[in-house]
Amino acid sequence: MEDRREQLEISGRSVDEAIEVALRELDADHGEVTIEVLSQGRTGIFGIGSEQARVRVTRLSEGCTLAGAAIGVVSRLLVNMDVAANARLHSPGGDEIGPTIDIQGDDSGLLIGKRGETLQALQLLVNLMLAKNERHPLIVLDVEGYKDRRARALGTLASRVADRVAASGTSVTLEPMPASERRIVHMALSEHPGVFTESVGSGSMRRVTVIPNGGSVG
Predict the structure, then answer these.
(1) 169-191 per-position pLDDT tens digit
(2) What span, in angstroms and rounded, lies between the C-alpha atoms of 9 and 79?
(3) Whether the model pTM is above 0.90
(4) Structural domain of residue 46, as residue ranges?
């Protein structure tokens, strides 16, 4: 019996064509593989200097169905957006928070956006696309560890501001943040002895205010 192939590198006239050929060769669907774009290819002028696109397609291990589906969706979006980056499984997740998909590549920084808003929008889109089929835990998208770095920076900022607020007795309102980042600040200061926090404002201008104990917002 012939062994099932687990990985292929395939060239084609376009990234889409190379992916489709690889999927046929592996007898797999998009949700069963990870896709790494090795070269976007180029058309050249009158065929001179042209270069074929090349991809590496790897079959996911059994039990990674949701992660595979997420990676497949993200990979397809990256191709359609003409972004030179690849999606990889960072952690499998659990029942409430699903797999974390990390995006890496030369153009990955384009996907973060101001205050991470582009990344959050992309994460929402991926979750909505996958929710069409069935309910699933939240799929988390990251870009080269951006969210971990941002969380550490927010924790440091929150602690510094809290100490200043506790010492001065004057509230401080931070810059607008998405809900996920406000949550990080609230959690970081939840046990601080001298302050408490509240969210104020609405929509994209919602912020965290750090308030001295015994004080009030505004």
Answers:
(1) 999 999 998 888 999 999 999 99
(2) 16
(3) no
(4) 7-144
